[in-house]
């Protein structure tokens, strides 16, 4: 689990347009936001000081996630234990309300990220195809690098072409 300082921008509960601007301007973690003044953040993103203050506040907020809860220590009747909500948890219905860009991994290409509504959705299946020289390997490398840096597992299905083997060997050193 990421620490507070290296929480990815995608995990912050902020406006999706602001999230996209942060990513496009090289911000990738909460620490990146905390490292600059509110004025500098507003200038970098082209937003108001009020919006920059709100983003900065969210980046400094500690997530309310309990790392351990023993259901047996909670004094509730057995029928009510299933209704226990852990602070920081989300229901499936709430997750469906999260915009796609909030959970997206950058492709490293602004235009492709915009076409994909913020990037590649974590946990999704993506087929990358094109003629030789179209940039398939570069996009694949960028997506895999984003996933590895955020601590995600990667599953590649398909033939291991020379370019994929080369990309995977480069990821070992991240």
From TrEMBL:
<keyword id="KW-0539">Nucleus</keyword>
<keyword id="KW-0547">Nucleotide-binding</keyword>
<dbReference type="GO" id="GO:0033065">
    <property type="term" value="C:Rad51C-XRCC3 complex"/>
</dbReference>
<dbReference type="InterPro" id="IPR027417">
    <property type="entry name" value="P-loop_NTPase"/>
</dbReference>
<keyword id="KW-0227">DNA damage</keyword>
<dbReference type="InterPro" id="IPR052093">
    <property type="entry name" value="HR_Repair_Mediator"/>
</dbReference>
<dbReference type="GO" id="GO:0000707">
    <property type="term" value="P:meiotic DNA recombinase assembly"/>
</dbReference>
<dbReference type="GO" id="GO:0033063">
    <property type="term" value="C:Rad51B-Rad51C-Rad51D-XRCC2 complex"/>
</dbReference>
<protein>
    <recommendedName>
        <fullName>DNA recombination and repair protein Rad51-like C-terminal domain-containing protein</fullName>
    </recommendedName>
</protein>
<dbReference type="GO" id="GO:0005657">
    <property type="term" value="C:replication fork"/>
</dbReference>
<dbReference type="GO" id="GO:0008821">
    <property type="term" value="F:crossover junction DNA endonuclease activity"/>
</dbReference>
<dbReference type="GO" id="GO:0000400">
    <property type="term" value="F:four-way junction DNA binding"/>
</dbReference>
<dbReference type="GO" id="GO:0007131">
    <property type="term" value="P:reciprocal meiotic recombination"/>
</dbReference>
<dbReference type="InterPro" id="IPR010995">
    <property type="entry name" value="DNA_repair_Rad51/TF_NusA_a-hlx"/>
</dbReference>
<dbReference type="GO" id="GO:0005524">
    <property type="term" value="F:ATP binding"/>
</dbReference>
<keyword id="KW-0067">ATP-binding</keyword>
<keyword id="KW-0234">DNA repair</keyword>
